[in-house]
Structures are given as structure tokens and as C-alpha cells.
Specification:
- The protein has eight helices and 20 strands.
- The chain is of the alpha/beta class.
- The protein has two domains: 14-154, no CATH class; 163-383, Peptidase S8/S53 domain (Rossmann fold, 3-Layer(aba) Sandwich).
- A six-stranded parallel sheet has the order 12-13-11-14-16-18, with helices on both faces.
- Strand 6 (119-124) and strand 7 (130-135) form a beta hairpin.
- Helix 5 (211-221) packs across helix 6 (248-261).
Length: 390
């Protein structure tokens, strides 16, 4: 294993990338030294817009108009690709609509380009399981000629970024549950709104589903289930039973709720690595898909302090892009109370639900008659004694 050369070697010099400062991962259990310098890795680079997107348009923008006004300019795209290629990176993708470059290279090459050192550590992930991953601290550097053009570089550090926002209730726990069709009757959802002609995207950062499980669930409700398609992002895939964090439960819950309420919609489940780059790439791929989805459902997140400033900005921009294209993005507000799983005794908002461009969804504690739709009592999540969102 050779050591990484992390001194940027840019003919025109280098400058700090604002917002790229990364603190050490919480709960590091072991350090294993530098990452093998010959290992091939991939990163996501975000470029600036041509024009600011200051407000959501009254009507969805056409893709052509969006790219022409708010995508990356051809000049920025060419300069960035030429610069990174000259410095030794492989260009996997250069997309003007999402202003995204996907780069690949060895750890030594990308560490040198971005002026960082990558170590391999084992830390306790968001769900308590130990995970070995690449790790960096401090800020990044970018070539001086790209100052102001590159706004984010994600994926060098691939620590787990988010957690699934659901709680499993013990079998012995008292309480009442309702099926999605029952909730639709209680809340007077339009009966004719069955998702016909629409598609819905669901973002998942782990786990998977089996068609037999879905058939059993929808059969129990007496309905024909929707068409469900798994879409891989950045090498991830539908892998039921392979995630030690138990993410299959979140995946099935998301599909079953959407499918029961909109059984005639096409559901596309985007499986991505649980990293800042993977999460962002899934949102970008879903929002820029053709046909444009009616909505994107996100049940993953993490308290705002666990994100770099550049990542939050990149996510905010991606969510604003989705809104401009006519896509509603819903995000779970979290299921860990006001602390949002932080241990410093302070209140923390969950991101990306806290983004102004996402529709944050909390939960309620409900007592109702599903036959008549009569609500006997209802307590919103922030007024109850326990967490109740997800």
C-alpha cells in the first residue's frame, strides 16, 4: 500500500472549496490507516447554475427551458471536464441539466486533485451497526480556474449519511393501526385519485424488496398491486435481506403505502449507496427522469449538523430543481423527537426534510373509526409524549 500524495498539483494553483469542511465521524471504533492509493473510487461534482433559481415558477418548466436557464453553461462544463481530465480523472458523466460531473480515479489521483487524505476507519453507523468506510477531515481544494464554478465535491468520504426514519413497534405493544385504504377514507382522499398515468419515485439507501412480499401484502388488501421497478444508482441495487440495518422494513413500508393509495401509478424505487453523493445522485436521477415523476418520496435523513455545508446546498438546489420541473418531494421529518438522534442535548432539525424545497411530513397519533371515517382523537407528533413520525 503506497502513501497518498495529497498536495494539489494544479498548474494555476488551488483554492479552498467553501463549505467542504468535514468533522471527524462520530463514534469511530477503529482506524486502519490510509486507504489503498490504487483503489478506484468515484465522486460527484456539482457546478454552478447559469441563472439563479430564486423562486419556484408558477407552472412546471420544460426541460429545454430549464437547462437553458438553470443548467450548467457549456463553457463551465467544458472547462471543468477539460481541467479534471488533464489532472488525471476519468469523466464518467457530464450532465448540463443537473450541473453534475461524475469523476473516477484512484484514491491517489483524486486525493491529489482535491487536496485531502483518505483514511479507512470503522465507525458506528446511524443504526448502531459498525461500518468500515473512507474518512476525511477538514476542507477540500479545487483548481483555481474552477473557483466559483465548482460548488460541491461529494463522495470522497463515504461514511453513512442518513438513517431510515421508521420505528418498529414491539409485537406486544398496545395500539391501533390502520391500512392505507382506511386512512384514505378517514382523511377523505379523492376516490378517483388512483395514480393512473403517473409515476412516483421512492429513494432508498439500503435494503430491498421481494415481489412475493408485495403480492402477499396487496392481496391481503384485496387490491391489485402497482408496477414496481428497481433502479440502481452508483452501483447500488435491490438487495432484500442483505442490509444489516434492517432497511428492508423501510423499503416495504414505502412501497406498500404508495402502492395502496395509488395502485395504478408506476413506482420506481431508486436504490443508492448511503453516502452524501449516493443520496444526492438518487434525487437527481429521479427528478430528471423521463417521464417526470409526480412526486419523490424520501424516508431517510439525518440531523443538519451531520451534513457538510456544501452537501446541504447541493441538496437544496437539487430539490429546487425538482420543484421547478413540477415534482413534489416529500421527506420524513424524523422519528427521534426534537433531538433527532443527536446526543448534545440541543434541538436539531432533520435534513433534507428541513430544506425549504421539500414537503416535510410528520405523523399523528390517531384514534378513528375506519368504517365511518370518524376521528375520535388525534395528536400531532410534536404534542405527543413520544416520537411519531417517519
Amino acid at each position: 500500500m503506497s502513501e497518498q500524495n495529497t498536495t494539489p498539483n494544479h498548474a494555476g494553483g488551488s483554492v479552498p472549496l467553501a463549505g467542504s469542511e468535514r468533522p471527524a465521524a462520530a463514534r469511530i471504533q477503529a482506524t486502519h490507516g490510509p486507504v489503498d492509493s490504487s483503489r478506484r473510487i468515484e465522486v460527484t461534482v456539482i457546478l454552478r447554475r447559469q441563472e439563479p433559481l430564486t423562486e419556484t415558477p408558477a407552472e412546471p418548466m420544460s426541460r429545454e427551458d430549464f437547462v437553458a436557464r438553470h443548467g450548467a453553461s457549456s463553457g463551465d462544463l467544458h472547462l471543468a471536464t477539460d481541467t479534471f481530465r488533464r489532472l488525471g480523472a476519468e469523466i464518467l458523466e457530464a450532465d448540463p441539466a443537473s450541473r453534475r460531473l461524475r469523476l473516477a480515479g484512484t484514491v491517489e489521483e483524486l486525493s491529489r486533485i482535491f487536496g485531502t487524505t483518505l483514511e479507512e476507519v470503522t465507525s458506528s453507523g446511524p443504526h448502531g451497526h459498525d461500518i468500515t468506510h473512507r474518512h476525511r477531515t477538514g476542507g477540500l481544494q479545487i483548481p483555481a480556474e474552477l473557483d466559483g464554478i465548482v460548488t460541491a465535491v461529494l463522495g470522497l468520504d463515504d461514511r453513512p449519511q442518513a438513517r431510515a426514519q421508521f420505528h418498529a413497534i414491539p409485537l406486544a405493544a398496545a395500539g391501533t393501526s390502520y391500512t392505507p385504504p382506511e386512512l384514505a377514507r378517514i382523511y377523505n382522499f379523492p376516490a378517483e385519485a388512483d395514480g393512473s398515468g403517473q409515476s412516483v419515485a421512492i429513494i432508498e439507501l439500503g435494503g430491498g424488496f421481494g415481489q412475493a412480499d408485495l403480492d402477499t401484502y396487496f392481496g391481503g388488501l384485496g387490491i391489485t398491486g402497482p408496477k414496481v421497478t428497481a433502479v440502481g444508482v452508483d452501483g447500488a441495487a435491490n438487495q432484500p435481506g442483505q442490509d444489516p440495518t434492517g432497511a428492508d422494513g423501510e423499503v416495504l413500508l414505502d412501497i406498500e403505502v404508495v402502492g395502496a393509495l395509488a395502485p395504478k401509478a408506476d413506482i420506481l424505487v431508486y436504490f443508492a449507496p448511503n453516502t452524501d453523493a449516493g443520496f444526492l445522485d438518487a434525487i437527481i436521477n429521479a427528478s430528471h427522469a423521463a417521464p417526470t415523476p409526480a412526486s419523490i418520496s424520501i424516508s431517510w435523513g439525518q440531523n443538519e449538523d451531520a451534513w457538510t455545508a456544501q452537501a446541504r446546498t447541493a441538496f437544496d438546489q437539487a430539490l429546487a430543481d425538482a420543484s421547478a420541473l413540477g415534482v413534489t418531494v416529500t421527506a420524513a421529518a424524523g422519528d427521534n423527537g426534537s433531538a433527532d438522534a443527536a446526543t448534545d442535548g440541543k434541538d436539531h432539525a432533520d435534513f433534507p426534510a428541513s430544506s425549504p424545497h421539500a414537503l416535510a411530513c410528520g405523523g399523528t397519533r390517531l384514534d378513528a373509526d375506519p368504517a365511518t371515517g370518524t376521528i375520535r382523537s388525534e395528536t400531532v407528533w410534536n404534542d405527543g409524549p413520544n416520537s411519531a413520525t417517519g
